[in-house]
């Protein structure tokens, strides 16, 4: 096309002006379709905001952290259980739900700037190599592992490695004249989800599941088979403090108790599509009596199992109203190693109950529900549990059950009062008891190591002197003046259980603790009445 020369200056001016205008709007990530779009998408809006901050903000800013905050803010406005998992947490989260990791197989404390072995995992590589409780791991493949230089996470990374690879350790053991050279071959180390499987009485077995991970069903089946061989015709399934996990694994566990064709649960997504899950013919405990223990911290997959059994008139639910999480999440990767767990559907128990409690007053109010239950008196009096007649359902045998917020047990057991359930459980969770017990063992490991496991569980007694020593231990490390006064028996129970765990593992903690547990006592009474 021919352009007359007289118009060239005008066209050149327009081009320069347009270039200046576009340059003012342009960012490295802008594309032509964005620049000339009449309305940018919501995603473009967020992209532009991050770009503007990264390139034009007056101070240097870590935009990765801004993105993390943005993602968390978005998810918090959806529901309490849609969550963001940063890439630095993904490996730990994945291992926890996968059920194993590759390592040397030791439980340890960073004790006085040194790796102190609490206990080698039974049958694991360190156990086979001869590492014992109380050993200090000083070096790994020539790298020092003591002092203030390394954090726990860095220590773990040095002890991990490819499967079947070897790590040369230098180990200090009290009483040995020099450091021990021990080579350990790394292997898959299980992260157990079944804490204990043992007989409570001659015909009543007990299984404790702490979460529903990939390996949980196999662990559960192994424990169940062992108990059946030991004569169990009745079973306690302890799901207290179990936060949930994989939906499919919970279905497999429930299937063991339900007859072929019984509805386990159904899910419904935003479009109304329904997916039902039914029991199969493979169940191995369909005729035995089952008692499911739940409390205010039993959530999600735990509630699926409890709800499936309750709605099918199978077994007895014992304890307190469960957490109330009826939302199903799917994990979705974000491309940089991070991921989100996004709520994609709701689940319903066989009678049609949604047990998800309301979250319309915000996330903080939702997570403060425990304190609301405590203040209302619900945790000590079943009459204080609020139910709505509009959410009343009936099981096939005519039992009334309620939706709208957790599984309400058939048999209510109040929370233990006072220090036992609050202060002591806090001290145990925060590691105070574990550190104290480790120090007690260090004083005379030979004495404790010579006590057979069952003799310890049945006959060992914690004395008042150890309770007083624990008080001194706490008061030297906290700002509070702690005295147990009337709670010596409860403290002794916790201390003995922690001792048993560090000495023997394999469910010793639960076996000791359950000797004075009110829910377990209630179930034993129920099982004896039903003989």
From TrEMBL:
Cellular component GO terms held in the UniProt record: outer membrane-bounded periplasmic space
InterPro entries per UniProt: ClpP/crotonase-like_dom_sf (IPR029045), PDZ (IPR001478), PDZ_sf (IPR036034), Peptidase_S41A (IPR004447), Tail-specific_protease (IPR005151)
Keywords: Hydrolase, Membrane, Protease, Serine protease, Transmembrane, Transmembrane helix
Transmembrane segments: 7-28
Transmembrane among keywords: yes
This protein's record includes keyword Transcription: no
Gene3D superfamilies: 2-enoyl-CoA Hydratase, Chain A, domain 1, 2.30.42.10, 3.30.750.44
Pfam families according to UniProt: PDZ_2, Peptidase_S41
Domain PDZ: 90-145
One example of a Gene Ontology biological process annotation: proteolysis
Residues in the signal sequence: none
Protein name per its UniProtKB record: Peptidase S41
Family note: Belongs to the peptidase S41A family.
CDD domains (alphabetical): cpPDZ_CPP-like, Peptidase_S41_CPP
Domain of life, per lineage: Bacteria
Alphabetized GO MF terms: endopeptidase activity; serine-type peptidase activity
SUPFAM superfamilies documented for this protein: ClpP/crotonase (SSF52096), PDZ domain-like (SSF50156)
């Amino acid at each position: 096309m021919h352009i007359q020369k007289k118009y060239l200056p005008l066209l050149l001016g327009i081009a320069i002006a347009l270039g200046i205008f576009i340059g003012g709007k342009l960012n490295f990530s802008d594309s032509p379709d964005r620049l000339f779009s009449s309305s940018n998408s919501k995603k473009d809006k967020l992209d532009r905001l991050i770009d503007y901050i990264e390139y034009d903000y007056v101070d240097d800013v870590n935009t990765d952290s801004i993105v993390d905050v943005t993602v968390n803010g978005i998810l918090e406005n959806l529901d309490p259980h849609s969550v963001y998992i940063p890439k630095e947490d993904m490996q730990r989260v994945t291992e926890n739900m996968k059920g194993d990791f590759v390592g040397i197989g030791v439980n340890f404390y960073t004790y006085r700037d040194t790796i102190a072995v609490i206990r080698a995992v039974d049958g694991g590589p360190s156990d086979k190599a001869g590492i014992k409780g109380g050993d200090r791991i000083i070096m790994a493949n020539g790298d020092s592992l003591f002092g203030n230089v390394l954090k726990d996470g860095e220590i773990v990374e040095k002890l991990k490695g490819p499967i079947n690879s070897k790590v040369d350790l230098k180990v200090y053991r009290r009483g040995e004249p020099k450091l021990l050279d021990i080579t350990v071959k790394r292997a898959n180390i299980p992260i157990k989800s079944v804490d204990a499987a043992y007989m409570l009485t001659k015909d009543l077995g007990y299984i404790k599941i702490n979460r529903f991970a990939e390996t949980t069903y196999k662990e559960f089946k192994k424990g169940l088979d062992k108990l059946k061989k030991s004569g169990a015709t009745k079973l306690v399934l302890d799901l207290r403090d179990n936060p949930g996990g994989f939906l499919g694994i919970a279905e497999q566990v429930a299937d063991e108790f339900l007859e072929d064709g019984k509805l386990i649960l159904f899910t419904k997504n935003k479009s109304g599509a329904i997916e039902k899950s039914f029991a199969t013919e493979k169940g191995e405990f369909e005729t035995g009596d089952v008692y499911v223990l739940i409390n205010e911290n039993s959530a999600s997959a735990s509630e699926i199992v409890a709800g499936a059994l309750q709605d099918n008139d199978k077994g007895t639910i014992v304890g307190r109203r469960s957490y109330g999480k009826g939302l199903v999440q799917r994990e979705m990767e974000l491309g940089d190693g991070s991921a989100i767990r996004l709520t994609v559907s709701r689940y319903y128990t066989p009678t049609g109950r949604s047990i998800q409690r309301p979250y319309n007053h915000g996330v903080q109010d939702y997570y403060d529900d425990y304190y609301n239950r405590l203040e209302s008196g619900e945790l000590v009096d079943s009459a204080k549990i609020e139910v709505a007649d509009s959410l009343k359902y009936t099981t096939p045998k005519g039992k009334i059950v309620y939706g709208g917020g957790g599984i309400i047990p058939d048999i209510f057991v109040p929370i233990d009062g006072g220090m036992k359930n609050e202060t002591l459980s806090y001290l145990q969770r925060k590691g105070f008891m574990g550190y104290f017990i480790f120090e007690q063992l260090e004083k005379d490991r030979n004495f404790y190591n010579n006590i057979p496991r069952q003799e310890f569980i049945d006959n060992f007694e914690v004395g008042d002197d150890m309770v007083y020593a624990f008080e001194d231990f706490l008061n030297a490390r906290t700002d509070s003046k702690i005295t147990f006064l009337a709670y010596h028996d409860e403290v002794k129970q916790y201390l003995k259980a922690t001792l048993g765990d560090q000495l023997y593992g394999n469910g010793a903690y639960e076996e000791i603790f359950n000797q004075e547990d009110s829910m377990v006592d209630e179930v034993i009474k129920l099982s004896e009445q039903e003989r």
